[in-house]
Amino acid sequence: xxxxxxxxxxxxxxxxxxxxxxxxxxxxxxxxxxxxxxxxxxxxxxxxxxxxxxxxxxxxxxxxxxxxxxxxxxxxxxxxxxxxxxxxxxxxxxxxxxxxxxxxxxxxxxxxxxxxxxxxxxxxxxxxxxxxxxxxxxxxxxxxxxxxxxxxxxxxxxxxxxxxxxxxxxxxxxxxxxxxxxxxxxxxxxxxxxxxxxxxxxxxxxxxxxxxxxxxxxxxxxxxxxxxxxxxxxxxxxxxxxxxxxxxxxxxxxxxxxxxxxxxxxxxxxxxxxxxxx
Length: 278
Known about the structure:
Elements: H1 2-57, E1 76-81, H2 91-103, E2 108-113, H3 115-123, H4 141-156, E3 162-172, E4 175-184, H5 204-277
Parallel strand pairs: 1-2, 1-3
Antiparallel strand pairs: 3-4
């Protein structure tokens, strides 16, 4: 019985230490949420303006641009954005599943963003374009600008025929959804029509070709900010659930410990009384 009490105390102590860790991670994620959300909202505004410009550039004059005209897809480049760390519920796993589903049966190369993404793609033997973007939290606009130029140049040179972005869409604190977005060739929407009052100099196709690196970098940056916010939200929810589970386990173990201790005390009293009577 004494050994059982000692084992219960050891478990309580271990769970208490884990609970302190999960609470700390929950607080860290919560403290970063405000700034991450503000950065996400700002990037969305930038992206809306960029997409409006690109939509106005898509017209009969630019439909034969190499960045709009569909190609026969022999190879696809996937820009995959996931987390720098784990312990975020299914956040990273959902992105990996989405990537595997998109890549299945295709010739693909991966440009991973995020430490865990880089490690996962290398471990699963994917063709990696670059492993330098190892932080979603610290990815800057200049990093995205460099990435945009590199992807544009490779696409022009025919290294791949389609560019897709796999990231996480932030819906709310409780919901984050993995999504796939086609970047190149730029998808044409029949619902959006160019504004006839806008004139581009020297011509729309020249402006379109020059804006493509900025378009790629803007899409990647906005998606990275949204994915990072989703990661923090997922980690906060996961750590909150883990903390509550730890509290429940401690309550149950405390009851078990008290019962075992009471049983030990009762047994000792019984032995003392029996010895005295003898």
